[in-house]
Amino acid sequence: MKPNFHRGIILDASKEGWDSGAATFGTVIYDQDDRKYYLFYTGASDVRWTEASIGLATSQDGLNFRRNDLNPIVNSKDFGLKEALTPVVFRVKNNYFMVFAGKTPRNGRKIYIAYSDDLVARATRTRILIDGPREKKKIIPGIKSEVALNTPCPIIRNEELWLYYGAMDRANGVWKTALSIFPL
Fold first, then answer.
1. What distance, in Å, lies between the first and last C-alpha atoms of the chain?
2. Which site among 43, 136, 145, 173 is 20 to 30 Å from 5 CA-CA?
3. In the beta sheet, which residues pair with residue 104?
4. Distance CA 52, CA 31 (A)
5. What CA–CA distance (Å, rounded) separates 75 from 87?
């Protein structure tokens, strides 16, 4: 299959600031109520990814995006993280949820969930869903090293949150797909 149209870059890294090293790993949702596209993306402070947080850009047409003035909406520093990345946003009834991977300076990767009443508010209610260092043997039986977690992908099924995500035993460097199920 060939694309009909390559638009190219729709959100570039900023000239300076928290997302001047990268603006990538995003997810887009379309809100039918206000007829806007919401792009949640990972921004890095430099090309070495010394620090990464999550931002929001909006668009009326899905092509021309404008950054939110409150960015970053998930500031890694606010949660004691070195990185907050790969956001996925979904709605359950009137609540919005964001799952994302986070890396602490010393304790490895975890998967977090943030709650909000609307799409543009900064994340203030956040908790750990999967604690990689503590739960690594449940995630990858026989793990020999530290676990890396990334790219969460949620679905709602039978009143449960099914969370698919990447998991890797750093001893062998092979990424696999894992699943954890949570009650709603």
1. 38
2. 43
3. none
4. 26
5. 12
User: CB-based contacts of 3: which residues, under 8 Å, 6+ apart?
Assistant: none
Please answer whether residues 87 and 66 qualify as being in contact, where contact means their C-beta atoms are separated by less than 8 angstroms: no
> Which amino acid would we find at residue 82?
K
DSSP string, 61-113: SSSS-EE-TT--SB-GGGGT-SEEEEEEEEEETTEEEEEEEEE-SSS-EEEEE
Please give the residue range of the domain that contains residue 54: 22-153
Amino acid at 54: I
What pTM did the predictor assign? 0.90
Let me know if 47 is exposed, middle or buried by CB neighbors in 10 A (0-12, 13-18, 19+).
Answer: exposed
* Exposure string over 18-44, b if 16+ CB within 10 A, otherwise e: bbebbbebbbeeeeeeeebbbbbbbbb
Residue 165 lies in a domain: no
- Render pLDDT for 132-176 as a digit per residue (tens, 0 to 9): 999 999 999 999 888 999 999 999 999 999 999 999 998 999 999
CATH number of domain containing 70: 2.115.10.20
Whether 10 maps to a domain, the answer reads no
For tokens 């009326």, what's the residue? 60
